[in-house]
TrEMBL record:
PANTHER family in the record: ASPARTATE-GLUTAMATE RACEMASE FAMILY (PTHR21198:SF7), GLUTAMATE RACEMASE (PTHR21198)
Record-linked SUPFAM superfamilies: Aspartate/glutamate racemase
Origin superkingdom: Bacteria
Organism encoding this protein: Comamonas sediminis
Gene3D superfamilies: 3.40.50.1860
Stored Pfam families: Asp_Glu_race
NCBIfam families linked to this entry: asp_race (TIGR00035)
Keywords: Isomerase
InterPro entries noted in UniProt: Asp/Glu/hydantoin_racemase, Asp/Glu_race, Asp/Glu_racemase_AS_1, Asp_race
Protein known as: Aspartate/glutamate racemase family protein
Family: Belongs to the aspartate/glutamate racemases family.
Length: 243
Protein backbone atom coordinates (compact mmCIF):
# COMPACT_ATOMS: atom_id res chain seq x y z
CA UNK A 1 0.00 0.00 0.00
CA UNK A 2 1.37 3.41 -0.97
CA UNK A 3 0.83 5.99 1.75
CA UNK A 4 0.29 9.62 0.82
CA UNK A 5 1.87 12.54 2.66
CA UNK A 6 -0.76 14.84 4.13
CA UNK A 7 -0.76 18.14 6.00
CA UNK A 8 -2.71 19.93 8.70
CA UNK A 9 -3.06 23.71 8.72
CA UNK A 10 -3.33 24.69 12.38
CA UNK A 11 -2.77 27.67 14.64
CA UNK A 12 -6.49 28.52 14.79
CA UNK A 13 -6.03 28.17 17.77
CA UNK A 14 -2.93 26.17 18.59
CA UNK A 15 -4.75 23.86 21.03
CA UNK A 16 -7.23 22.91 18.31
CA UNK A 17 -4.41 22.24 15.85
CA UNK A 18 -2.56 20.04 18.33
CA UNK A 19 -5.75 18.16 19.18
CA UNK A 20 -6.43 17.58 15.49
CA UNK A 21 -3.11 15.71 15.20
CA UNK A 22 -4.26 13.45 18.05
CA UNK A 23 -7.54 12.81 16.23
CA UNK A 24 -5.73 12.09 12.97
CA UNK A 25 -3.40 9.57 14.61
CA UNK A 26 -6.42 7.87 16.20
CA UNK A 27 -8.22 7.81 12.84
CA UNK A 28 -5.16 6.24 11.21
CA UNK A 29 -4.97 3.53 13.90
CA UNK A 30 -8.66 2.78 13.45
CA UNK A 31 -8.20 2.59 9.68
CA UNK A 32 -5.27 0.18 9.93
CA UNK A 33 -7.07 -1.96 12.52
CA UNK A 34 -10.18 -2.14 10.31
CA UNK A 35 -8.04 -3.43 7.45
CA UNK A 36 -6.88 -6.34 9.60
CA UNK A 37 -3.27 -5.17 9.75
CA UNK A 38 -1.33 -4.64 12.99
CA UNK A 39 -0.91 -1.08 14.22
CA UNK A 40 2.79 -0.14 14.19
CA UNK A 41 4.80 3.07 14.18
CA UNK A 42 5.73 2.41 10.57
CA UNK A 43 2.11 2.03 9.51
CA UNK A 44 1.27 5.71 9.90
CA UNK A 45 1.43 8.04 6.90
CA UNK A 46 3.82 10.98 6.86
CA UNK A 47 1.91 13.99 8.16
CA UNK A 48 2.91 17.55 8.95
CA UNK A 49 1.34 20.20 11.17
CA UNK A 50 1.82 23.89 10.35
CA UNK A 51 1.04 26.01 13.42
CA UNK A 52 1.08 29.70 12.50
CA UNK A 53 -0.26 32.75 14.39
CA UNK A 54 -3.04 33.22 11.83
CA UNK A 55 -5.17 36.37 12.28
CA UNK A 56 -8.64 35.95 13.75
CA UNK A 57 -11.05 34.52 11.18
CA UNK A 58 -14.31 35.68 12.75
CA UNK A 59 -13.01 39.23 13.11
CA UNK A 60 -11.99 39.25 9.45
CA UNK A 61 -15.48 38.18 8.42
CA UNK A 62 -17.40 40.44 10.79
CA UNK A 63 -15.24 43.58 10.46
CA UNK A 64 -13.18 43.24 7.27
CA UNK A 65 -12.51 46.97 7.09
CA UNK A 66 -10.50 46.94 10.33
CA UNK A 67 -9.43 43.34 10.95
CA UNK A 68 -6.35 41.71 9.45
CA UNK A 69 -7.03 39.33 6.57
CA UNK A 70 -5.87 35.79 7.50
CA UNK A 71 -5.54 34.66 3.86
CA UNK A 72 -1.87 35.59 3.41
CA UNK A 73 -0.74 33.68 6.50
CA UNK A 74 -2.88 30.69 5.62
CA UNK A 75 -1.05 30.69 2.29
CA UNK A 76 2.27 30.73 4.16
CA UNK A 77 1.18 27.59 5.98
CA UNK A 78 0.09 25.87 2.79
CA UNK A 79 3.38 26.84 1.14
CA UNK A 80 5.27 25.08 3.94
CA UNK A 81 3.06 22.00 3.80
CA UNK A 82 3.41 21.81 0.04
CA UNK A 83 7.20 22.15 0.34
CA UNK A 84 7.41 19.00 2.48
CA UNK A 85 5.36 17.00 0.01
CA UNK A 86 1.82 17.17 1.35
CA UNK A 87 -0.70 16.09 -1.28
CA UNK A 88 -3.83 16.77 0.76
CA UNK A 89 -4.47 19.21 3.61
CA UNK A 90 -7.06 19.49 6.35
CA UNK A 91 -7.69 22.97 7.78
CA UNK A 92 -8.14 22.62 11.53
CA UNK A 93 -10.60 25.50 11.87
CA UNK A 94 -14.25 25.65 10.85
CA UNK A 95 -14.44 29.39 10.25
CA UNK A 96 -11.29 29.35 8.10
CA UNK A 97 -13.27 27.42 5.51
CA UNK A 98 -14.74 30.76 4.47
CA UNK A 99 -11.51 31.02 2.44
CA UNK A 100 -11.64 27.40 1.20
CA UNK A 101 -12.62 28.24 -2.37
CA UNK A 102 -9.98 30.95 -2.69
CA UNK A 103 -7.31 28.70 -1.19
CA UNK A 104 -8.22 25.77 -3.41
CA UNK A 105 -8.07 28.02 -6.47
CA UNK A 106 -4.64 29.26 -5.37
CA UNK A 107 -3.35 25.72 -4.70
CA UNK A 108 -5.01 23.53 -7.37
CA UNK A 109 -2.35 20.84 -6.90
CA UNK A 110 -3.38 20.31 -3.26
CA UNK A 111 -6.54 18.52 -2.21
CA UNK A 112 -8.09 20.77 0.44
CA UNK A 113 -10.73 18.86 2.35
CA UNK A 114 -13.92 20.77 3.23
CA UNK A 115 -15.04 20.23 6.81
CA UNK A 116 -18.74 21.13 6.41
CA UNK A 117 -19.17 18.91 3.35
CA UNK A 118 -17.54 15.99 5.15
CA UNK A 119 -19.94 16.41 8.10
CA UNK A 120 -23.02 16.88 5.90
CA UNK A 121 -22.25 13.79 3.83
CA UNK A 122 -21.76 11.74 6.99
CA UNK A 123 -25.16 12.81 8.39
CA UNK A 124 -26.77 12.11 5.02
CA UNK A 125 -25.36 8.57 5.03
CA UNK A 126 -26.89 8.09 8.49
CA UNK A 127 -30.28 9.24 7.19
CA UNK A 128 -30.47 12.20 9.58
CA UNK A 129 -33.18 14.71 8.53
CA UNK A 130 -32.13 17.52 10.87
CA UNK A 131 -29.41 18.70 13.26
CA UNK A 132 -28.34 21.60 15.48
CA UNK A 133 -25.24 23.75 15.04
CA UNK A 134 -22.95 25.45 17.56
CA UNK A 135 -20.39 27.66 15.83
CA UNK A 136 -18.75 31.09 15.66
CA UNK A 137 -20.47 34.24 14.49
CA UNK A 138 -18.26 34.13 11.41
CA UNK A 139 -19.39 30.61 10.54
CA UNK A 140 -23.03 31.60 10.97
CA UNK A 141 -22.50 34.76 8.92
CA UNK A 142 -21.22 32.92 5.84
CA UNK A 143 -23.67 30.01 6.15
CA UNK A 144 -20.82 27.50 5.97
CA UNK A 145 -22.79 24.55 7.32
CA UNK A 146 -26.19 25.78 6.14
CA UNK A 147 -25.14 25.41 2.51
CA UNK A 148 -23.46 22.03 2.89
CA UNK A 149 -26.34 20.58 4.93
CA UNK A 150 -28.98 21.95 2.57
CA UNK A 151 -27.18 20.31 -0.35
CA UNK A 152 -27.62 16.99 1.48
CA UNK A 153 -31.29 17.64 2.29
CA UNK A 154 -30.71 18.22 6.02
CA UNK A 155 -32.47 20.93 8.06
CA UNK A 156 -30.20 22.81 10.47
CA UNK A 157 -31.39 24.53 13.66
CA UNK A 158 -29.37 27.59 14.73
CA UNK A 159 -29.08 29.30 18.15
CA UNK A 160 -30.68 32.64 18.93
CA UNK A 161 -28.54 35.78 18.79
CA UNK A 162 -27.94 35.98 22.56
CA UNK A 163 -26.94 32.30 22.53
CA UNK A 164 -24.47 32.97 19.72
CA UNK A 165 -22.85 35.67 21.84
CA UNK A 166 -22.60 33.21 24.72
CA UNK A 167 -20.87 30.73 22.45
CA UNK A 168 -18.36 33.39 21.42
CA UNK A 169 -17.68 34.15 25.09
CA UNK A 170 -17.05 30.47 25.73
CA UNK A 171 -14.66 30.33 22.78
CA UNK A 172 -12.68 33.50 23.45
CA UNK A 173 -12.93 34.07 27.21
CA UNK A 174 -13.10 30.33 27.81
CA UNK A 175 -11.03 27.97 25.65
CA UNK A 176 -8.70 30.51 24.05
CA UNK A 177 -8.02 32.02 27.49
CA UNK A 178 -7.43 28.54 28.98
CA UNK A 179 -10.53 28.81 31.20
CA UNK A 180 -12.18 25.51 30.38
CA UNK A 181 -14.78 25.62 33.18
CA UNK A 182 -16.08 28.92 31.82
CA UNK A 183 -16.17 27.50 28.30
CA UNK A 184 -18.00 24.36 29.37
CA UNK A 185 -20.64 26.35 31.23
CA UNK A 186 -21.30 28.65 28.26
CA UNK A 187 -21.41 25.87 25.67
CA UNK A 188 -23.59 23.62 27.85
CA UNK A 189 -26.12 26.39 28.52
CA UNK A 190 -26.65 26.98 24.80
CA UNK A 191 -26.79 23.26 24.02
CA UNK A 192 -29.34 22.71 26.76
CA UNK A 193 -31.58 25.53 25.48
CA UNK A 194 -31.43 24.23 21.91
CA UNK A 195 -32.12 20.68 23.04
CA UNK A 196 -35.26 21.90 24.82
CA UNK A 197 -36.47 23.48 21.55
CA UNK A 198 -35.47 20.84 19.02
CA UNK A 199 -35.10 17.55 20.88
CA UNK A 200 -32.34 14.96 20.75
CA UNK A 201 -31.18 15.59 17.19
CA UNK A 202 -27.44 15.52 16.35
CA UNK A 203 -25.53 18.56 17.62
CA UNK A 204 -22.66 19.72 15.42
CA UNK A 205 -19.85 21.25 17.48
CA UNK A 206 -18.88 23.52 14.59
CA UNK A 207 -15.88 25.28 16.09
CA UNK A 208 -12.71 23.37 16.94
CA UNK A 209 -12.70 24.89 20.44
CA UNK A 210 -16.14 23.55 21.38
CA UNK A 211 -15.26 19.81 21.48
CA UNK A 212 -12.39 20.67 23.83
CA UNK A 213 -14.88 21.70 26.53
CA UNK A 214 -18.48 20.62 25.89
CA UNK A 215 -18.37 16.77 26.00
CA UNK A 216 -18.85 15.55 29.53
CA UNK A 217 -21.25 18.34 30.51
CA UNK A 218 -24.33 16.92 32.24
CA UNK A 219 -26.75 18.78 29.97
CA UNK A 220 -25.54 16.99 26.82
CA UNK A 221 -25.59 13.43 28.15
CA UNK A 222 -27.43 11.24 25.65
CA UNK A 223 -27.32 13.90 22.94
CA UNK A 224 -25.61 12.82 19.69
CA UNK A 225 -22.54 15.09 19.50
CA UNK A 226 -20.86 15.52 16.12
CA UNK A 227 -17.21 16.62 16.23
CA UNK A 228 -16.37 17.98 12.77
CA UNK A 229 -12.65 17.76 13.57
CA UNK A 230 -13.01 14.01 14.14
CA UNK A 231 -14.99 13.62 10.91
CA UNK A 232 -12.34 15.62 9.05
CA UNK A 233 -9.51 13.60 10.65
CA UNK A 234 -11.11 10.39 9.44
CA UNK A 235 -11.49 11.84 5.93
CA UNK A 236 -7.82 12.87 5.91
CA UNK A 237 -6.83 9.39 7.05
CA UNK A 238 -8.79 7.84 4.18
CA UNK A 239 -6.96 10.09 1.73
CA UNK A 240 -3.58 9.28 3.32
CA UNK A 241 -4.23 5.54 2.91
CA UNK A 242 -5.39 5.99 -0.68
CA UNK A 243 -9.09 5.23 -0.16
Amino acid sequence: MKLHTVGILGGMGPAAGADFVRLFVQACADHVRASGAPVTDQGYPEHWLAQLPIPDRSAALLAPETAEDPFAMMCQGLDKLQSVGAQAVAVACNTAHAWHGRLQQTYPQLQLLHIARVVAEGLQQQGQPSCMLLATQGTYRIGLYDQALAACGITVHLPQEAEREQLMRGIYQGVKADRMDQARADFAAVAQAMRARHGDVPLIMGCTEIPLALPGADSVQGLPLIDPAWELAQALARVAYGD
